Amino acid sequence: MIEKFANASALRLTFLISLIAFLPGVQSFAQSTASDQTPGAQQPSTPTTQTPAAQQPSSDQEPAEEESTSRRKKHEYKNWVFNIGAGANLDSGTTKNFVRGGGFTGMVGVARNANKYLGLRAEFIYADLPLKDSALVLASATGATSYAWAVTLNPIINIPVSSDWGGYIIFGGAFYHRAGSLDNSSAVPGEPCTAFWRWWGNCNAASVPISGDFTNTSLNQGGYNFGAGITRKTPSGVEIYAEYRLMHGAANGNTTDFRPVTIGFRW
């Protein structure tokens, strides 16, 4: 009886020891299974930053932007610029001894620009040269018509100051033609030449020509001109300019001088 009880106790003891040895393995397996079955929403993941497509410039847009920039640079200046202006003439040189200031002057021109700063401008310039009363006395005339015109070909240096304001300097050679006619002159052919007759261009040696129409004059002269101007661009793109120019022509000791001050438009 006692032996049976001892055997039963030994079996129970053996079962308990085996159970105790088996429990750690079961616990480890349960923990492993639980970690594998944890939902993915509970596992933090590294966020991936995605740049919106609109913020990523495409390769197709880059050539278009380069072409637009190139076009803007190309059109920073106009290849051809036309100008027209009018104003008053200031007397100058020997001419001011016989011509009063304030005569009408006008000009038209065209320029071909090589770049933003340098161009070549051709112009036709007209100037009225009204004679002073003292000159009419020397000419023994009651009135007169006197004028000059010039054809110029000048380099022009453009000076941009801002998007609206600018300036320029102009200089070069010119061809001059001066002409005039005296009204009712009572001058006597062969009388001694005065300073007026020498400037007028009809003085033969030291006397008024005996033959020929000395009351009319027509002179061709070569010379130079230079000046400067300022420009103001209007919203339409047309520029308003104001210009001062010094004109000088000479031939055979005879000179023609005038200084046009003009206001006009360039486009």
Low confidence ranges: 37-49
What is the rounded Rg? 50 Å
Q: What's the count of strands?
A: 8
Number of helices: 4
Model description:
The chain is of the alpha+beta class and 267 residues long. It has a domain at 74-179 and 216-266: Porin. It contains four helices and eight strands; from the N terminus they run ααβββαββαβββ. The chain has helices at 2-36, 61-74, 133-138, 195-200; strands spanning 80-91, 103-113, 118-128, 143-160, 165-183, 216-233, 239-251, 254-266. The chain has an eight-stranded antiparallel barrel with strand order 1-2-3-4-5-6-7-8. The longest helix has 35 residues, at 2-36.
Give the arrangement of secondary structure elements.
Blueprint: H1 2-36, H2 61-74, E1 80-91, E2 103-113, E3 118-128, H3 133-138, E4 143-160, E5 165-183, H4 195-200, E6 216-233, E7 239-251, E8 254-266
In brief:
With 267 residues, this protein is α+β, with helices and mostly antiparallel strands. It has a domain at 74-179 and 216-266: Porin (Beta Barrel), CATH 2.40.160.20.
What tags apply to this protein structure?
single chain; 267 residues; alpha+beta; Porin; eight-stranded antiparallel β-barrel; 4 helices; 8 strands; 43% strand
